[in-house]
Structure prediction request, 302 residues.
Amino acid sequence: MSTVVSFFRRRGLAVVAALGTLLATSSAVASAAEEPLNSEYVALGDSFAAGPLLLPQDGYHLDPCFQSSVDYAHLVAKALNAKTFRDVTCSSATTDNILTTPQKPYLPTSPSVPLQIGAVTPSTTLVTISIGANDLGLATLALTCLNVLPEPHGTSCKDTETAGGVDQGAEAVAAEAPRLANVLDVVHQKAPHARILITSYANYIQPGGCYPLQPVWARDADYIQGLVNQLGQVTKTVAAQHNAEYVDFIAPGVGHDGCHLTQNWVNVVVPGTTLGIVPLHPTWLGEQNFARIVEEHLAGAN
Prediction:
């Protein structure tokens, strides 16, 4: 009998100890989860997020990142009054540069850029991500759509990409889903209590384009923007499947594409009066509005 009592006494002590550990762990999780959103904000992404050549430029890896101190992440951090802010967005970055492959500079004398995921910590409370286009070579493809002369004097990028009945651009976009999913999963692992936002790219050119103001034929304008829209839908689906929040910049950008040279949020080829410099990238006005959209999303306005 005493052996039985001793057994249950030991088991009881073990259960109490286990409950104590569970409560302590739960308390720690709750404490971390209750950290304010602005405690530690990390921005990941490529040149769309970095704002290359938009002055003033931040000192973070000028080569090859060319990160602006007025990119949307900097503006969001300021609006949130973020206590800790790390913007590691970098021009030409791919999903590999976030997770597995340090980014090479253009000049041999410049240092390599560390993996972006290294900026994310267990105490991170907010992460924004804009990534995917460079995995597809989307900017390079878009530049093949330029034609100074009207049809038929040139080559259609849509015809090239869909030759033989296979849409290579669309297939490449669809294949991006697992890469985006992997990024989100790893960010969750590194920062289990963070709120994670992943964005679309932009509304670059209006339906049918605006040739010759922007030297892109109508069907090519629709094709390249269609790929951007498709990537947005892929990103939205992946976000929903991997516990992240999708932020759309495309729909709010209607009327602010590169065909509208006084209120353009992005450039196509010909810069607008908002003085954005780099083709297929945001202008100062665009960065301000992308920051506003993110802030409204965080506040629950969307």
About this structure: Strands lie at 40-45, 84-87, 126-130, 195-199, 245-247. The CA atoms of residues 208 and 218 lie 4 Å apart. Residues 1-34 form one domain. Confidence is low (pLDDT under 50) at residues 1-32.
